[in-house]
């Protein structure tokens, strides 16, 4: 049982953006929170990877487009490094309707957020990513994400053939996975299945372990790319 008097661990945040002014604004915002601290700043993807290996942050705020090594390449490197398995990446983008967003999810990012998001949204995104939640910007449509993920092509399946591992899931774990892909929280899934949120969390954790997924965002990718969930015709 957690000690109510013991302060929660401080969330270590790494900032990666080629705009110094924007990094400064993010630094002030993050450091203003008692449960967060900025441990490093990077101006490109190569530096972000170096600092991630040096500081092992909990969350990296990563700009998609940077000169030299871009954010997508850096994210793929971070998320494929076993030594950085606990690092979560939140992609920052100016254009939320962007195929690079989906490529980021495939690369291992926990989600994305528009640079125009409100400060409260950014802080919430950091906390959600640290908690292992899937993060999709409120301004983005899930239908668009679903359509991109369902497109055929060389990148249509995660590395390692993870969709084939759906055979390892129980019927209830598949059912939970469908709801996770629909963007439902553990509480909402519990209400639908008439089980406790803790039971749902157990099923989610088991599904992640069996599928080799880093977090809920990766479960969403696997659900769509495996064909377990398909975009509806009425989605925008």
UniProtKB/TrEMBL annotation:
Keywords annotated in UniProt: DNA-binding, Phosphoprotein, Transcription, Transcription regulation
The keyword Membrane belongs to this UniProt entry's keyword annotation: no
Modified residues (4-aspartylphosphate): 63
Coiled coil: none
Domain Response regulatory: 12-130
UniProt-listed PROSITE patterns: HTH_LUXR_1 (PS00622), HTH_LUXR_2 (PS50043), RESPONSE_REGULATORY (PS50110)
The organism's place on the tree of life at top rank: Bacteria
Claim: Transcription regulation is one of the keywords in the record: yes
Record-linked InterPro entries: CheY-like_superfamily, NreC/VraR/RcsB-like_REC, Sig_transdc_resp-reg_C-effctor, Sig_transdc_resp-reg_receiver, Tscrpt_reg_LuxR_C, WalR-like
Gene3D superfamilies: 3.40.50.2300
Classification via Pfam families: GerE, Response_reg
All copies of domain HTH luxR-type, residue ranges: 162-227
Protein name: Response regulator
Protein source organism: Streptomyces nondiastaticus
Lineage of the organism: Bacteria, Bacillati, Actinomycetota, Actinomycetes, Kitasatosporales
């Amino acid at each position: 049982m957690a000690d109510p008097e013991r302060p929660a661990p401080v969330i270590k945040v790494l900032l990666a953006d080629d705009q110094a002014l924007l990094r400064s604004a993010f630094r002030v915002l993050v450091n203003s929170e008692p449960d967060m601290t900025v441990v490093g700043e990077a101006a490109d993807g190569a530096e972000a990877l170096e600092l991630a290996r040096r500081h092992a942050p909990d969350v990296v705020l990563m700009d998609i487009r940077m000169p030299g090594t871009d954010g997508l390449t850096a994210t793929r490197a971070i998320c494929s490094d076993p030594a950085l398995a606990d690092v979560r990446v939140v992609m920052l983008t100016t254009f939320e309707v962007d195929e690079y967003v989906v490529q980021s999810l495939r690369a291992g990012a926990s989600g994305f957020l528009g640079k125009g998001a409100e400060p409260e949204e950014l802080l919430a995104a950091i906390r959600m990513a640290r908690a292992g939640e899937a993060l999709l910007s409120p301004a983005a449509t899930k239908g668009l994400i679903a359509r991109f993920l369902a497109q055929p092509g060389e990148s249509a399946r995660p590395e390692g053939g993870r969709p084939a591992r759906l055979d390892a899931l129980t019927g209830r774990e598949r059912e939970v996975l469908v709801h996770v892909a629909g963007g439902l929280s553990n509480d909402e899934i519990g209400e639908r299945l008439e089980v406790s949120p803790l039971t749902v969390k157990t099923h989610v954790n088991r599904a992640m372990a069996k599928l080799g997924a880093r977090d809920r965002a990766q479960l969403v990718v696997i659900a769509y790319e495996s064909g377990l969930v398909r975009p509806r015709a009425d989605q925008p």
